[in-house]
Amino acid sequence: MAQKNNDELFKNVISHAKEYGFVFQSSEIYDGLSAVYDYGQLGAELKNNIKTYWWKSMVQMHENIVGIDSAIFMHPKIWKASGHVDGFNDPMIDNKDSKKRYRADQLLEDKIAKYEKDGKTEKAAKLQADMDDALKAEDLPRLKALIEEHEIACPVSGTKNWTDVRQFNLMFSTQFGAMAEGSDQVYLRPETAQGIFVNFLNVQKTGRMKIPFGIAQIGKAFRNEVIARQFIMRMREFEQMEMQFFVRPGEDKKWFEYWKEARLKWHKALGTPTEKYRYHDHVKLAHYANAATDIEFEFPFGFKEVEGIHSRTDFDLSQHQEFSGKKMQYFDAELDENGKPYGNYVPYVIETSIGLDRMFLLTMMNALEEEDLSTPEKQDSRTLLRLHPALAPIKAAIFPLTKKDGLPEKAREVMDALKFDFNCIYEEKDAIGKRYRRQDAVGTPFCITVDHQTLEDNTVTIRHRDTMEQQRIEIKDLHWTIESKVSWRSLLSQS
């Protein structure tokens, strides 16, 4: 029954996202483009608010972290140096009947999640251990054997007619240049981190940054994901919010623990239930890492990564130093415990990397609820998007009670006064109750109703989304009332 409820929740979020203008299938009038989505009018606002929360938390609240915006196109040698050309692969398996391709490890993870839901915890633990061993050893035949051993069927065809597991490179390539015969092959960046690393010296010198310091960036990345499923969880074009924190060699473990704790606190400040989050330590580390932990969120389809914290050592800067021939070193004039300058060294890096689209989905999942308002006399309910007020796409909706007697004009005055500071919407169609319900469904924290009494004493009714409580307040107090709930201060002070 729980599985059914989880499936229903996921389907409800997807349909709600489309119905209210949050997320649309890309190129929908042409039957869509697989694993690519567009953000609608409210989705764009919510997405921007999540970005603002992250940026303010990272850059504004830290004196030693600055932000950049690097280009999507970069020199192809960068991806050779980073290891993406030779090593950016996923273990893929095809079903011969459906012709669909899947990530072998994700098929196994789904089976593990099913075992756990069915109470078969020992079986789940055994499969998890076997999969981790196979991934660590890069034993592709073993991955296929596990898929067969646990009788995993293709979700589309329902058959178990599998090919061998093979590695598949995920980078998109394109031609760079006006003429095809004289153009160079370049890649659409599969991550935003390398744009930070190649600008390490530019930022450090122009900003006179001292170790430890960080560089943050929000930007698009592209991966040729072959699995189009789970809505915006896995997309070919997606957005990342990454911060690379440069530290002294030997201090990486200390900072790794610091950022693990700090990033989980950032998530929890939004009011998400603590039990919905967990840490997952990597068994198989990436080629650049000496430690890695994922912050996972419990989606309806199981715990999945939302953010990664990685101790990348000095791999990236050392690789770019070797491939470019330019020194990527920092001169540290501060004295160590023996009274000697630290001198020149290639800094170590702690990375925090969060998927913006996954964070968007998490936020929608956590906020959407159907609230039963039934009484003995009447059946009633409402669809509510209980977003943190700071993230809400619309902060206040202004309603004239009727479309006559000067109420629309007065409501427009209120709207004009508030819109400089808050994203507001004006609406006069339908009964007031229906208007309230529409705003509940998109997460608007406040509804302000202008009625005939307003014309007499300059007071309005303000309705609170979460409690449906209505207050009579003076128009001059509206700004403070809204600001006290939706300001970034209320959120940043807890993160």
Automatic annotation (TrEMBL):
<dbReference type="InterPro" id="IPR004154">
    <property type="entry name" value="Anticodon-bd"/>
</dbReference>
<dbReference type="Pfam" id="PF00587">
    <property type="entry name" value="tRNA-synt_2b"/>
</dbReference>
<dbReference type="GO" id="GO:0005524">
    <property type="term" value="F:ATP binding"/>
</dbReference>
<dbReference type="GO" id="GO:0005737">
    <property type="term" value="C:cytoplasm"/>
</dbReference>
<dbReference type="InterPro" id="IPR022961">
    <property type="entry name" value="Gly_tRNA_ligase_bac"/>
</dbReference>
<dbReference type="InterPro" id="IPR002315">
    <property type="entry name" value="tRNA-synt_gly"/>
</dbReference>
<feature type="binding site">
    <location>
        <position position="191"/>
    </location>
    <ligand>
        <name>substrate</name>
    </ligand>
</feature>
<keyword id="KW-0547">Nucleotide-binding</keyword>
<protein>
    <recommendedName>
        <fullName>Glycine--tRNA ligase</fullName>
        <ecNumber>6.1.1.14</ecNumber>
    </recommendedName>
</protein>
<comment type="function">
    <text>Catalyzes the attachment of glycine to tRNA(Gly).</text>
</comment>
<dbReference type="InterPro" id="IPR006195">
    <property type="entry name" value="aa-tRNA-synth_II"/>
</dbReference>
<feature type="binding site">
    <location>
        <begin position="238"/>
        <end position="242"/>
    </location>
    <ligand>
        <name>substrate</name>
    </ligand>
</feature>
<keyword id="KW-0030">Aminoacyl-tRNA synthetase</keyword>
<keyword id="KW-0648">Protein biosynthesis</keyword>
<keyword id="KW-0436">Ligase</keyword>
<feature type="binding site">
    <location>
        <begin position="355"/>
        <end position="358"/>
    </location>
    <ligand>
        <name>ATP</name>
    </ligand>
</feature>
<dbReference type="InterPro" id="IPR045864">
    <property type="entry name" value="aa-tRNA-synth_II/BPL/LPL"/>
</dbReference>
<feature type="binding site">
    <location>
        <begin position="223"/>
        <end position="225"/>
    </location>
    <ligand>
        <name>ATP</name>
    </ligand>
</feature>
<keyword id="KW-0067">ATP-binding</keyword>
<feature type="domain" description="Aminoacyl-transfer RNA synthetases class-II family profile">
    <location>
        <begin position="151"/>
        <end position="393"/>
    </location>
</feature>
<dbReference type="GO" id="GO:0006426">
    <property type="term" value="P:glycyl-tRNA aminoacylation"/>
</dbReference>
<dbReference type="InterPro" id="IPR036621">
    <property type="entry name" value="Anticodon-bd_dom_sf"/>
</dbReference>
<dbReference type="InterPro" id="IPR027031">
    <property type="entry name" value="Gly-tRNA_synthase/POLG2"/>
</dbReference>
<comment type="similarity">
    <text>Belongs to the class-II aminoacyl-tRNA synthetase family.</text>
</comment>
<dbReference type="GO" id="GO:1990742">
    <property type="term" value="C:microvesicle"/>
</dbReference>
<feature type="binding site">
    <location>
        <begin position="305"/>
        <end position="306"/>
    </location>
    <ligand>
        <name>ATP</name>
    </ligand>
</feature>
<keyword id="KW-0963">Cytoplasm</keyword>
<dbReference type="GO" id="GO:0015966">
    <property type="term" value="P:diadenosine tetraphosphate biosynthetic process"/>
</dbReference>
<dbReference type="InterPro" id="IPR002314">
    <property type="entry name" value="aa-tRNA-synt_IIb"/>
</dbReference>
<feature type="binding site">
    <location>
        <position position="103"/>
    </location>
    <ligand>
        <name>substrate</name>
    </ligand>
</feature>
<feature type="binding site">
    <location>
        <begin position="351"/>
        <end position="355"/>
    </location>
    <ligand>
        <name>substrate</name>
    </ligand>
</feature>
<dbReference type="GO" id="GO:0070062">
    <property type="term" value="C:extracellular exosome"/>
</dbReference>
<dbReference type="InterPro" id="IPR033731">
    <property type="entry name" value="GlyRS-like_core"/>
</dbReference>
<comment type="subunit">
    <text>Homodimer.</text>
</comment>
<dbReference type="GO" id="GO:0004081">
    <property type="term" value="F:bis(5'-nucleosyl)-tetraphosphatase (asymmetrical) activity"/>
</dbReference>
<dbReference type="Pfam" id="PF03129">
    <property type="entry name" value="HGTP_anticodon"/>
</dbReference>
<dbReference type="GO" id="GO:0004820">
    <property type="term" value="F:glycine-tRNA ligase activity"/>
</dbReference>
